[in-house]
Automatic annotation (TrEMBL), chain A:
Family to which this protein belongs: Belongs to the GerABKA family.
Protein name stated in the entry: Stage V sporulation protein AF
Keyword Transmembrane recorded: yes
Record keyword Iron present: no
Organism: [Anoxybacillus] calidus
Any GO CC annotation of this UniProt entry: membrane
Source domain of life: Bacteria
TrEMBL record, chain B:
Sections of the chain in a coiled coil: none
UniProt key word Transmembrane helix: yes
Keyword Heme: no
Keywords of the record: Membrane, Transmembrane, Transmembrane helix
Name of the protein described by the UniProt record: Membrane protein YqhR
InterPro entries: YqhR (IPR024563)
TM region positions: 21-45, 74-94, 101-123, 138-157
Pfam family, one: YqhR
Lineage: Bacteria, Bacillati, Bacillota, Bacilli, Bacillales
Length: 491, 173
């Protein structure tokens, strides 16, 4: 009940009432970063409210100079408000009629100007947020190509994208989510390409979010959007590269940008979006195809190599004659499956430690891992050399997965397959793989089948996955995004 | 110069890309599905997950000893692909409106039952199901399930997309 009333408090003509409101509601005078500057212009009180960390002092000084100058050069006291509005030398000046809107804007870093005897104030956009310059994202490096990446500021991010698509049909819809955080979220799409149904779905889902704050920004949004549950597979693709985002916009995808996060969400996404990388498109088609195939092998190996090898260890009779050398030659003290799990979890220790270890220490950590654990574990009789070999190969396979999220999900799948093999041998492996594929097949992310274009099969799109087509040769947009306009190249 | 280039049909960007018709997609899906999953079957045979290799379909014919070798198997994979077009067309005719992937699973199991129980006498080397070893039974059922899902889900999905496209153009006109 109180919320509704509060939303409509008009600006009072008495400035002391307004000041009282600001003091009570947002703690001007209590919080040190909020301040008020009182001036006298044409014999009228003028109050300027600001939030000192979020606005640019230089701009405010310029504005103040101009406003104070009014006292020397203007005579018409009756029109104080119009004169002040005229003298606000800035392109983004908006009138405001109620205090709650003023508070919202003030806390975003804009300044609020209230004039004695007026029930309308002005809001001037002098925002300047602390942030870094665009730099190459660590997770998506390319040898050649643009080195700029998204930053934590949504305005810069939309600008970086707009630089690549000057189309008048590019739309940036902005909405605010979060009762307390009031985070800006931008839905970007190209109006005559993107599926309006999908845009509507995304808009509806975003508006339905009820939460106090979005401190984890895009990740929180993703969880609301795709309702993932405990499925480990990533249902949306993230990118920090504006060129990747722009490519997807042109293909008819919908992009969601969340303020305070340098990664944007690409929807809808399938499994095969996670196995491609910008690097393939910076090389010639033949090289790109080669790179892609090597990467596919890496991903495949990271899932299936360990369970398969372990199956051959416990049932050597499965191996064809020529491959019979596979499997450990010496007897070991610890069952192979336990070795595999210890080693795999060891690799996981390393990976996790590497994320938050300072760089100088991580060199030492790598040394310890390689020399001490690898060498000595074998000498002590803990591990068979082959275990180390296969664990390393599958670990490198998962590092070759371009999507970080996918590589971890694959790791979980691999551990489950290993368990299935350990318990049920051949039937465990076969049934395990079958169930694994069926689970992937039935996943739908925003009404998009996850394994498309493999299952359900789409010949031409599948060819596009296997072979990196040359850009002049790929003329149609992928059908899975239901583009309104199939042809990429205008004829 | 620009004008000349735009007429040059040899250039990649000047070739037209025609949308595939639905029935063509069904045929290709059928062929690819048959070939791909029987290739996996051959892989499973190599690693002794199953005693049956794709050349099963060649065995009733007296074509020479090469049918047991690699050539025989690859030829069989190709032939299974061709036969699989028929399977896909049957699914397309009768079940294309089933949206769930379970339709595909059931279709796969039904195919397996058809081949291993009903057509069993056609294959001289195929023992009755009771005599097959456990691994073979499980591996073949799983392969047929995946194959069924591949065929079923693909065709149902394409048919639904096709329907959707038709409705959209109807609305636009």
């Amino acid at each position: 009940m109180t919320i509704k009333q509060k939303n409509h408090i008009p600006i009072s003509q008495k400035l002391s009432d307004n000041e009282q409101f600001f003091k009570e509601k947002i703690g001007v005078g209590t919080s040190f970063d909020l301040g008020i500057r009182k001036l006298k212009v044409l014999n009228k009180e003028v109050h300027i409210y600001y939030c000192n960390g979020l606005c640019d002092t230089q701009f405010i000084i310029e504005l103040l100079k101009e406003i104070i100058d009014i006292n020397d050069s203007e005579r018409q006291r009756a029109q104080a408000k119009q004169i002040i509005e005229n003298r606000l030398v800035h392109q983004q000046v908006n009138p405001v009629a109620n205090l709650d809107e003023a508070v919202d804007q003030l806390l975003s870093g804009l300044i609020v100007i209230l004039i004695e005897g007026e029930s309308n104030g002005f809001i001037v956009d002098v925002r300047s947020y602390p942030g870094r310059q665009p730099q190459e994202p660590d997770t998506e490096k390319v040898v050649r190509g643009a080195r700029d990446g998204y930053v934590e500021n949504i305005i810069v991010n939309t600008a970086l994208t707009r630089r690549r698509i000057r189309d008048e049909r590019l739309r940036y819809e902005i909405i605010q989510v979060g009762e307390r955080s009031k985070t800006d979220i931008c839905i970007a799409y190209i109006k005559d390409v993107a599926d309006p149904g999908l845009v509507e779905l995304v808009r509806k889902e975003l508006k339905a979010i009820k939460i106090d704050g979005l401190t984890m920004a895009d990740k929180t949004i993703e969880e609301f959007l795709v309702k993932q549950g405990y499925n480990p597979y990533p249902l949306v693709r993230y990118t920090e590269r504006p060129d990747v985002a722009a490519t997807h916009l042109l293909e008819g995808h919908v992009i969601i940008m969340v303020d305070t996060s340098p990664s944007v969400i690409i929807t809808p996404t399938t499994f095969f979006h996670h196995v491609q990388h910008a690097e393939e498109y910076r090389q010639s088609p033949a090289i790109g195809t080669f790179v892609r195939w090597v990467r596919f092998i890496g991903i495949f190996v990271s899932i299936f190599l360990l369970p398969l090898w372990y199956l051959f260890v416990i049932e050597p009779s499965l191996l064809p004659e020529k491959l019979s050398y596979i499997g450990p030659n010496e007897k070991t003290n610890i069952p192979t499956i336990v070795q595999l799990f210890i080693a795999d979890i060891g690799v996981e220790f390393l990976r996790m430690a590497a994320i938050h270890t300072p760089t100088p220490l991580s060199t030492a950590m790598g040394l310890i891992a390689a020399v001490l654990i690898g060498e000595i574990a074998i000498n002590v009789g803990l591990f068979v050399p082959e275990v180390i070999l296969y664990i390393s190969v599958s670990a490198i396979g998962s590092f070759a997965t371009p999507s970080y999220e996918l590589s971890i999900a694959n790791k979980i799948a691999r551990l489950f397959l290993l368990l299935a093999v350990a318990f049920f041998k051949v039937p465990g492996f076969i049934i395990g793989v079958t169930i694994y594929i069926l689970l992937l097949v039935q996943i739908r992310s925003l009404n998009t089948p996850y394994l498309w274009p493999f299952i359900p099969f789409n010949p031409s799109a599948f060819l596009q996955i296997l072979v990196r087509r040359s850009v002049p040769g790929s003329k149609v947009r992928p059908s899975i995004v239901h583009p309104q306009n199939r042809q990429k190249q205008p004829t | 110069m620009d004008h000349e280039q735009s007429k040059n049909l040899q250039l990649e960007q000047n070739q037209k890309e025609r949308p595939m018709s639905l029935i063509m997609k069904v045929v290709i899906t059928g062929f690819f599905g048959g070939a791909f999953w029987s290739l996996l079957g051959y892989f499973a045979y190599t690693f002794h997950f199953t005693e049956l290799s794709p050349n099963m379909i060649l065995l009733p014919w007296a074509v020479g000893d090469w049918k047991y070798g690699r050539l025989g198997n690859f030829l069989s994979i190709f032939l299974i692909g061709i036969l699989s077009i028929l399977v896909a067309l049957v699914y397309y005719t009768f079940f294309k409106n089933m949206k769930s992937i379970w339709a595909g699973v059931v279709y796969g199991v039904a195919l397996w039952a058809l081949i291993f129980f009903v057509f069993n006498p056609l294959f001289p080397n195929l023992q009755s199901v009771a005599e097959l070893n456990r691994d073979t039974t499980i591996t073949t059922i799983c392969l047929y399930i995946l194959y069924g899902v591949f065929i079923g889900y693909s065709i149902s999905f394409e048919a639904a997309e096709h329907e959707r496209q038709k409705q959209l153009t109807a609305i636009n006109e």
